[in-house]
Design a protein that fits this description.
With 755 residues, the chain is mainly α. Helix content is 75%, strand content 6%. Among the domains are: 36-137, Serine Threonine Protein Phosphatase 5, Tetratricopeptide repeat, CATH 1.25.40; 619-751, Histidine kinase-like ATPase, C-terminal domain (Heat Shock Protein 90), CATH 3.30.565. InterPro entries: HATPase_C_sf, HATPase_dom, Sig_transdc_His_kin_sub2_dim/P, TPR-like_helical_dom_sf, TPR_rpt.
Length: 755
C-alpha cells in the first residue's frame, strides 16, 4: 500500500495561473479591438483573443484554429513594431496552441525560440512563463526528462523571484516540489513545498487543499503519520470551506485511506478509499479509478482477502490495456502478492522475471525499487527461498534508509528477521528483530497514542479558538450596538437644533418672499406680452414644418419605390439569366451566368433591405451578411460541411459603400466555398468586419482550407473575381490584400464615407 496518486497532483493543483480570457470576454475584446489606436494595443488584445479560444473549456479544433488566427495577426503586426517582448509572447501563445492541437514538434520549436529571444533581455517574468511552458513538454515518467523538467521549473522560480512575482513563484515552487515527489526525493519535495505554502499564505491564497494533501502524502510516506493526518484533515477542511466538489476530493480521500492503512486502521482505510472511488466513478476518470483501485487491492491483501484483490486487479488490467512503465510495475508486484497470498506459487513465479527486469532498468535508489523488493521478499519467504529473501531485504534496507521510508523499513526488518531465523543466523535475526521492535514501537505507539492524541488536542484547541472568536464577535456586536445608540442620541439632538434653525430661516424667507412676490407680479405681466408674440411666431413655424414633413414623406416614398423597382429589375435580369442558362450547354458559360446571378443577388439584397428599412440611406451589415451567406448556402451543394464564424461589428454603411462591400463578400465567400475545401473536407470560414476609432473599416474573409495551388501568383494568375474585388476596393478608395496563411485570407481596408 504505497501508491500515492502521483498522477493527480499535476492535473488537479492548478499548475499555472490561466493566462487566457473566459469565453464571455471575446465580444468585449472584439469591441476593444475596434477602438485600439496603437499597434501595441492591437497586439495585446489579439493575444488575449487567441488565449480566450485556446483556454476555452472543451475547446474544439475550430477554437484552436481561431486562436491561431488571432495570434498570427498579432505576430504580423509585431513584424512592423519589432518589439522583443511581444515576439516572445506570440511564440509562447503559439506553443500553447500547438501543444493543445497535439503538434508537439511545432510547439517545442516555438517555445525554444521564445526562450532564446528572452535570454538576452531583462524580462524575468516573461522568461519565467516561457520556462514553465517549456517544462510541459517533458514527462514525469522518464527519469532524464523529469530531471530536465525540474531544472526548467527551478530556473522559472528564480526568474519570478527576480521579478517580485510571488504568485507565480509559489506556483513554480509547487510544481518543482511535486516533481521531486514523483522522483521519490521526499526531503527536497518537503523543503520546496513548504516554501510554496509560505508564499501562498503571504499572497492570501485560500484554496490550498491540494497542497496540504501533497504534503500529507509525503509525511505519511516518511512515517510521520501525525503530520500526515494533520495535513489530510486540513485538506478536507479547506476543501469544505472552499466548497470544493471537484476530482481533487478523490485525491484527498485516497491519501487519507493510505494514512489509515499505515496506522493499521483498515476499516477506516477502506471507507476513505471507497469514497475516493465513488468520486472517480462520478467523473469517469480512468487514471483516478486505477490508482484508487490499486490501493484497495493492497487493503484487501492486508485483510486476508486475496481473491477479492485478484478480482479487482484483473478488472484493472482489462481497463488499462497499455499501461505506462510505473503502472506495469504496480500490476506485476500486486499479481505476485495476490498469488503468493493464495499459495499459487507457480502463477506468482511467472511475474518474477518481469519485476527483476524493471528493477534493473531503474537507478538503485529509485522509490519504486521498494515496491519491487517488497513483492520479491514476500514471494521468497513464502516459497522458503530464504537466501534470496535476505538478499532483497538488504537491498530494501539501503533504499529505505537513503530516501527516508521509515514505515517500509520497519516491515523490512521483520521480514529480514524471518529470513535470518530460517537460515539459523541467530545473531543477525536478533539484531533485526530488535530494530523492528524499536522502530515499530516508535512508529505505531507514539504515532497512534501520543501524536494522534496531540492532533486531537490541536483540533480541540481550534474548536475553542472558534468559540472564543464567537464570543469576541458577540462582544464586538454589543459594543457596536452601544455606539449606534450613542450615535442615535447625537442625531436626535442634531435634529432638534436643525428644526429650530430651520424655523428661524423660514421666517426670514417669508419676509423675503413677500417682497419678491410683488416684483414677480410685475415681471409676469411683461412675460405674458412676450409669450403672445412668441405664440404667433410658433404658429407660423408649425405650418412650415407641416409642409416640410409632407415633402419628406413624399421623398421617402419615392426612394422606397425606386429601391423596390431596382430590386424587381434585378430579379427580372436574374430570371432572364436563368432562362438563358436553360439553353446553354457550355460549362464555362453556365458558370459565368451563375456567378453573375450571385453578384446580382448581392446587389438585390441591398435594395431589398433599403426598401424594407425605415432608414433609406444605411444598410445593417450584420443582417445583410447573414442573409447573403444564407442565400449562398441555398445555392451550393455540400456547404453544410463548412462552418461560418461571423464576427461582424454593429456597422451601418451607406448604399454607395454597401454595394461594393457586398460584391467583395460574394466573390470571396464563393471562392472559399468552391475551392478551399475539396473532396468534402470540413473547414471554417471566418468573416469579420471591424471598425477602428478613426472610422477605418477592416473587412476580412479567411478560411483554413488548402490555399492556392503550388507556384500560384494571385497578382499574375488571378481570376475575373479577383480583378473585380480589386476594382471594387479602388471604388471604396481602400486597399485589398489576398494572402495564403493557413488557407486564403482576403483583407480589405477602407474609410467610412460620410455622405
Amino acid at each position: 500500500m504505497y501508491r500515492l496518486a502521483l498522477v493527480f497532483h499535476l492535473m488537479l493543483m492548478g499548475i499555472l495561473p490561466c493566462m487566457g480570457q473566459p469565453e464571455s470576454a471575446v465580444p468585449v475584446l472584439l469591441h476593444q479591438l475596434t477602438k485600439a489606436t496603437s499597434d501595441t494595443q492591437k497586439i495585446n488584445i489579439l493575444l488575449q483573443l487567441g488565449n480566450a479560444y485556446i483556454d476555452r473549456e472543451g475547446e474544439s479544433t475550430a477554437d484552436l484554429d481561431s486562436g491561431l488566427l488571432y495570434i498570427g495577426q498579432a505576430a504580423r503586426i509585431n513584424e512592423h513594431v519589432k518589439d522583443t517582448r511581444w515576439e516572445a509572447r506570440c511564440l509562447y501563445a503559439f506553443s500553447k496552441a500547438y501543444r493543445e492541437k497535439k503538434m508537439p514538434n511545432e510547439g517545442k520549436t516555438a517555445i525554444l525560440k521564445a526562450s532564446a529571444i528572452l535570454e538576452g533581455a531583462n524580462l524575468p517574468d516573461d522568461l519565467g512563463d516561457v520556462l514553465m511552458e517549456q517544462g510541459n513538454y517533458y514527462s514525469v515518467d522518464d527519469e532524464p526528462q523529469l530531471k530536465e523538467k525540474i531544472r526548467l521549473y527551478e530556473e522559472a522560480n528564480l526568474q519570478y523571484h527576480k521579478a517580485g512575482d510571488k504568485k507565480n513563484e509559489a506556483n513554480a515552487l509547487r510544481m518543482t516540489g511535486d516533481c521531486y515527489h514523483c522522483w521519490g526525493k521526499f526531503p527536497e519535495a518537503l523543503q520546496t513545498l513548504n516554501k510554496a505554502l509560505a508564499l501562498y499564505k503571504e499572497t492570501g491564497r485560500k484554496d490550498l487543499q491540494g497542497l496540504y494533501d501533497l504534503l500529507g502524502i509525503i509525511a505519511t510516506g516518511t512515517g510521520d503519520y501525525s503530520l500526515g493526518m494533520t495535513y489530510g484533515l486540513m485538506a478536507v477542511r479547506t476543501a469544505e470551506e472552499q466548497h470544493d466538489s471537484s476530482l481533487q476530493l478523490c485525491t484527498i480521500y485516497n491519501r487519507l485511506g493510505i494514512t489509515y492503512y499505515q496506522l493499521g486502521d483498515y476499516k477506516q482505510a477502506e471507507e476513505s478509499l471507497n469514497k475516493a472511488l465513488k468520486i472517480a466513478d462520478r467523473y469517469k476518470d480512468t487514471a483516478s479509478i486505477l490508482v484508487v483501485s490499486t490501493n484497495i487491492v493492497a487493503n484487501y491483501l492486508k485483510t486476508d482477502r486475496p481473491e477479492a484483490a485478484l478480482t479487482l486487479l484483473n478488472n484493472i488490467v482489462k481497463i488499462y490495456r497499455q499501461p505506462i512503465f510505473k503502472d506495469r510495475l504496480w500490476i506485476l508486484a500486486n499479481m505476485v502478492k495476490c498469488y503468493t497470498a493464495m499459495r499459487q506459487y507457480d502463477k506468482a513465479k511467472t511475474f518474477i522475471p518481469g519485476l527483476q527486469s524493471h528493477s534493473r532498468e531503474m537507478s538503485a535508489y529509485n522509490y519504486y525499487q521498494t515496491l519491487i523488493y517488497d513483492a520479491l521478499i514476500n514471494y521468497y519467504l513464502a516459497t522458503r527461498q530464504y537466501m534470496d529473501a535476505s538478499f532483497y531485504c538488504s537491498l530494501q534496507n539501503d533504499v529505505c534508509k537513503k530516501i527516508g521510508l521509515v514505515n517500509v523499513l520497519s516491515h523490512n526488518y521483520l521480514c529480514w528477521f524471518q529470513a535470518d531465523s530460517a537460515l539459523k543466523n541467530y545473531p543477525a535475526a536478533i539484531k533485526h528483530y530488535q530494530e523492528y521492535k524499536i522502530m515499530n514501537d516508535s512508529l505505531f505507539q507514539i504515532a497512534k497514542a501520543g501524536q494522534i492524541a496531540r492532533l486531537q488536542v490541536r483540533f480541540d484547541i481550534d474548536k475553542k479558538d472558534k468559540d472564543i472568536r464567537l464570543q469576541q464577535q458577540s462582544i464586538e456586536l454589543l459594543t457596536r450596538q452601544g455606539q449606534l445608540q450613542r450615535s442615535a442620541l447625537k442625531e436626535a439632538r442634531l435634529t432638534r437644533n436643525v428644526i429650530i434653525s430651520g424655523a428661524i430661516m423660514l421666517l426670514l424667507l417669508l419676509v423675503l418672499g413677500g417682497s419678491r412676490y410683488l416684483m414677480k407680479q410685475q415681471n409676469n405681466r411683461q412675460l405674458r406680452q412676450k409669450q403672445d408674440e412668441i405664440y404667433q411666431q410658433n404658429l407660423s413655424l408649425q405650418q412650415l414644418i407641416t409642409t416640410q414633413d409632407k415633402l419628406l414623406e413624399e421623398k421617402e416614398w419615392l426612394l422606397k419605390e425606386i429601391h423596390h423597382r431596382v430590386k424587381n429589375n434585378l430579379q427580372i435580369v436574374m430570371s432572364l439569366l436563368n432562362t438563358q442558362a436553360a439553353y446553354l450547354h457550355d460549362a464555362d458559360a453556365l458558370e459565368a451566368i451563375r456567378e453573375s446571378k450571385h453578384r446580382m443577388q448581392a446587389i438585390s439584397l441591398i435594395h431589398q433591405k433599403l426598401y424594407q428599412s425605415e432608414n433609406m440611406a444605411l444598410i445593417d451589415m450584420q443582417t445583410y451578411t447573414r442573409e447573403l451567406i444564407s442565400y449562398l448556402k441555398d445555392n451550393f451543394e455540400g456547404i453544410q460541411r463548412i462552418y461560418f464564424d461571423l464576427q461582424i461589428a454593429p456597422v451601418q454603411l451607406d448604399v454607395a459603400q454597401a454595394v461594393p462591400v457586398g460584391l467583395i463578400l460574394n466573390e470571396a465567400l464563393t471562392n472559399a466555398i468552391k475551392y478551399a475545401f475539396p473532396e468534402n473536407r470540413q473547414g471554417t470560414v471566418v468573416v469579420s468586419l471591424l471598425c477602428t476609432l478613426d472610422s477605418q473599416f477592416i473587412l476580412s474573409i479567411a478560411d483554413n482550407g488548402q490555399g492556392f495551388p503550388p507556384a500560384f501568383d494571385v497578382s499574375v494568375q488571378g481570376s475575373m473575381g479577383t480583378r473585380l474585388m480589386e476594382t471594387l476596393a479602388e471604388q471604396l478608395e481602400g486597399t485589398i490584400s489576398i494572402r495564403q496563411e493557413q488557407g486564403v485570407s482576403v483583407i480589405v481596408s477602407f474609410k467610412q464615407q460620410i455622405g
